[in-house]
Amino acid sequence: MKDAAPKTIYLKDYTPFGYVVESVHLTFRLAPTSTRVISRIAFAPNPDATDRAFFLHGEELSLIWAKIDGQDVLPDVTDDGLRCTVPDTPFIWEAEVEISPQTNTALEGLYMSNGMYCTQCEAEGFRKITYYPDRPDVMSTFTVRIEGEEKVKLSNGNPVGSGDGWAEWHDPWPKPAYLFALVAGDLVNHPDRFTTMSGKEVELNIWVRPGDEDKCAFGMEALKKSMTWDEEVYGREYDLDIFNIVAVDDFNMGAMENKGLNVFNSSCVLASPETSTDMNFERIEAIIAHEYFHNWTGNRITCRDWFQLCLKEGLTVFRDAQFTADMRSEPVKRISDVIDLRARQFPEDQGPLSHPVRPESFQEINNFYTATVYEKGAEVIGMLKTLVGDDAYKRALDLYFDRHDGQACTIEDWLRVFEDATGRDLAQFKLWYSQSGTPRVSVSEDWADGVYTLTFRQHTPPTPGQDVKDPKVIPVAVGLLNPNGDEVVPTRVLEMTKAEQSFAFEGLASKPIPSILRGFSAPIVLERTVSREERAFLLAHDTDAFNRWEANRNLARDCLVAMIRNGAGPDMAWLEGLERVVRDDTLDPAFRALMLSLPTQSEMAQVLFEMGTTPDPDAIWQAAEDLRGHMAEAWQGFLPELRASVAVDAPYKPDAEQSGKRSLGSALLALQSRLDGGAAAQAQYDAADDMTLQLSALSQLISAGQGAAATKAFEQQWKHDRLVMDKWFGLQVGMAKPDMAVDVAEGLVEHPAFDMGNPNRFRAVMGGFAMNHAGFHRKDGAGYAFLADWLIKLDDKNPQTTARMCSVFQTWKRYDDGRQALIRAQLERIKAKPKLSRDTDEMVSRILG
Ligand code: 0A1
Ligand code: ZN
Prior knowledge:
Low-confidence stretches: none
Bound molecules: O-methyl-L-tyrosine, zinc ion
Number of helices: 27
Radius of gyration: 27 Å
Helix content: 40-55%
Shape: globular
C-alpha cells in the first residue's frame, strides 16, 4: 500500500463515517509472530451521515474469518482495508485476524520491545491491529481480554478480571481507536496512590523492566504534581480507578497519552541522579505532565480529524508550559521555549516544510507531528489568552470542557467557546490557524511634543502554497523605560490588526526607550534597527526578563556577524555588560546561564542568510570558537571563583534552584576549559557523582581535545545502561571538531552497541551528528552522504523515524551553490530508493519543493 501512488487527503473533504460504534470487544491471543485478534464490534447506522459505504481500515493483517450477526461473510479485502455489504439496521461485526508483533520494526500497531508487547496507535496504527474505522471521530467504549503467559497484562480503563493466563479491562469512556493501548510483559511496578479533589482513590503505577525500579520515583512525583495542578488550575479531575504508565525502550516519539495507560519512551520517564541530567529531569516532569493533561485535552475532548491535531497538541503543550513555569521559573521557562521555537519551528515555517498550524492537506499524517502544530500551536493559544485576559481564558476553558466533553471537535468549536465567553469576533485571529509562515514586524518610532509613537508594519513572506497573506492579529506587549532605567509605562498589550498601525503614548517627560515584544508575546520576527547602546541599555535595565535576555541575544548575534563578515574583534562593551549580569548574584543562576549561552551555529546561519550573506559553516564555527576564547580570556580573573560560588554543596536534587546553579557552573566550566587545557573539567569529571556534572565535564574534555581517556572510562562505567550510552554516542559526535565529525560518526555506527532499530540510539548518533553544524555541512558533502546512507537503510524498517530525521535537510537553501547541489543529490538519491515509504517520500518531495 505504501508504494502505491501517494494519495493526498484534504481537510475540505471531511465527511462523517456512515456508522457509529456502540461497543468494541477485543480478545488478544498473544504470540510473537502469530498473535490472534478477535473483535466483536456493535455498529449502527449514523443518523448524521449520508454515505453508508462500509469500509474498515486494515493494514498488514491476515483475515481468518469475518461474521455479521453470526453469519460468515466474505469481505472484499484490499491493502488498506476491507469493504462489505452490511444490514441497514444495527449489527454485530466479528472478525479474527493474525498479526506478527515480533517482526513489526516500524513500532506502529502491536510490536515487541525487549520481549514485551506494546502498542502505538496514534495516529493511524490501530488499523495494523484489527479491521476498524480508524479515525478519531469514531468513539466507543472498549472491553479488552488479553491471553498470554506474561506476568503483567494491561489495557485502557479499569481492570475487571484476571486469572491464569488472562486479564480483562474495560474502559467506560468512549474513545477513538488511536487511544487504544495494550502492554504485556514480565514487568515490575513502582506503585503509589492519589486522592482526587472529590475524594476518589486512584491507584498509580509506573511499569518498567526489572532493574529499572529505582528510576521511577521522580516520574511518580511528577505525575502526582500534575494531577494536583490540573485540579487546582483547570478544575480537571482524573476519571478512572487506575492510571498506568509503562516505560518502553523502542519508541518512535516521546510518549503517548493512551487512556489510562500512557506509554513512554523510557528516556522520558526513567530517571536517577547518577544516570540523568538536570535537563532530563525537567523534560521528564514536563512530558509526564503533558501526557497526563491530555486526559482532558485530547482524550475526553478529542479531534474530529487529524487536521485538528493542534486542538489537542497546541493546548496541551500550552498547559504543560504553564505547569513547568509554576513548578520552576516562569522567565527561564519562557526563554527556553523561545530558544526552542526559534531553533525548531522558525526554520520549519521559513522553509519548504512550512505548513499552517492546522494543515489543509497531507499524505502521511505522521509527518505533521511538527514544531508548528505543537509549539506554534501553543503560541497561538498563548496569544489568545493574552488578548482576552486571564479571567476570560478561564471562562472559555470551563465552557469548552462543559460543552464538548465526550466529543470529537474542531478548531471552529474551540474558537467559538472563546467568542461565546467573551463576545469577541475571532475571525481574523483564526488566520493564525490557516496561514503558514512567520510574520515579520518592523517598527519605527517618533517623538514629538511629549508624545511617543510606535508604528508597526507586518508582513508574512510567501510559503509553499500561500503567496498572499492577510494581516493577522498580533498582540505586542510593550513597556517604556526612561533614560535612567526606570519603567515609566509598565507592560501594555498593543493589539495590532492592520498591515500598518501606530500607537501613541502621551505625557512623557523625555523620549523613552521602548522594550518591545515583552515575554515574546507573539511568534514573530521583530525587525528593528536598534543601536548597540540601546541594546546595552536594555541588557542592563529592562524589567522584563525575556527582553533583557533578548537584548543580550541580539548583541551576541551582532557581535558574531561582525566577526564573521568583517573579521572584527569581539564587542568588548557588550562583554562588559554581560559580565555585570553574569556576576550579579541577585539574579537567578539559571537566568544567568541562559545569558551565557550563545546563539547556535544553525541560528547564525539563518541570521546571515536573512542579511543576504551566504553562511559559511566553517566561518561560523570559527567565530563562535574565537568569541568563547575572548570571553574566557576577558573573564579569567573571576571564572574559577564565580564557578566555585555556585557549586552545590548539598545532596543532589533536580529542582530549579540546584539545576540553575549547575547550569551556570557548566557554562563557566566551558570557558574555563579554554584556558586550562581541561584541568578543571578533569577534576569535575573525577569528582562527579551525578550525571549532570559528569556529562558536562566529559563534554568540555572532548571539546578541549582531552576527552580520550574519559570517553573510554565513561563507556566502561555505563555500558550496561542504554539511556546513558545514548548520551555517550550523541556527545562524541556532537562535540567532535567539524573536520572529524564524519569520521567519528562512521566509527560510532561500527560500535557493537549501535543499533539502528532502536530509535533512541539512531537519533543519538544521527541527530547528534546533524547538530554538529559545521561537521554535517562539510564542504565535500561527506556528511550529507553519510546521513543519506543511513536514512535509506532505516526506511525499510522504520519509516516514521526516517521521515522525521529528513527534516535536517530542510534548511538546505540557505547554503552556497556547491552545498546545495550536494544536498540535492542526496535528497534525490533517497527519493529514488526502491519501495521508499510514503512517510519519507512525502518529506523528501516537500523538501525538494
Ligand atoms: N500524542 C503524543 C505524541 C505521539 C504522536 C505520534 C506517535 O506515534 C506516531 C506517538 C506519540 C504526544 O503528544 O505526546
Ligand atoms: Zn501531546
